[in-house]
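for the record, two folds in this file. i put them one after another cuz i was lazy. first one right below, seq on top, structure tokens after. the second one comes after a little note so u can tell where it starts
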Amino acid sequence: MEDNERLIVEVRPRPTGAAVSLVGDLDSTTSSQLLGAAERAFAGHAGRDLVIDAAGLVFCDSVGISTLVQLRQRSDTYGWTFRVEGVQPYVRRVLDLLGLLEYLNAE
């Protein structure tokens, strides 16, 4: 688990791949934590499914949204499926306005 006062990132193995839980702020100063955790998940877990658990996100700016898009693209490159679950209403609204809900498989 990584913790920097603003974002806690935890990678959990799943039978089908890995889940990355986020608690706090996903922004320009914390997005590298998520990217690093996801890369470790791709490299270290059997399976082909990456789930981002966003239920604990308090804040997500444009860099955070861009990071989610990058992770979807990396998942495609590695042949993994990608999903964001627990999307908070304010993030859902932004993703909807940007036309990204379906692309990110946001729930």
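(here's the note) second protein begins now
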Amino acid sequence: MSRAFVKESDGADVEELAELKLSPHRNLVTAEGMRQIEGQVERLRAELAAARLADDRAATKRIQRDLRYWSERQRTAEPIAPTPGGGKVRFGSEVVLATTGGGEAVYRIVGEDEADPANGKISYVSPIARQLIGLAAGDEVSLPNGAAEVVEVR
């Protein structure tokens, strides 16, 4: 059959994208985490407008999916204000650990969306954070690389 008689795609056949999976855990966020979520929603709304203007159906579908995810994260966010004092590790705390061999590790317990382990920000549902929550200076914890002692809770 000649290509002259084949219907060209009008973009309606853009493949459906799987929805982004939402966490089953509470959506706890720090003030910084809330700003990050709000920034994602604003950025995606602007990208969606640009994709629609360019009539880019594939980008529009992807951005709409991402916007649904971030809008739901924004809707369900539970901002947690830092709790001063107390000396115990909790959500939002920064924890300084003395590790085996004289090293030091610093972790900040944050929400899932703002976690960045390479920069010391760990999700409150991560195994390490779960071990740290409730500890105080002088307490010991077992980490994947060996034992550590809580030196300071900020």
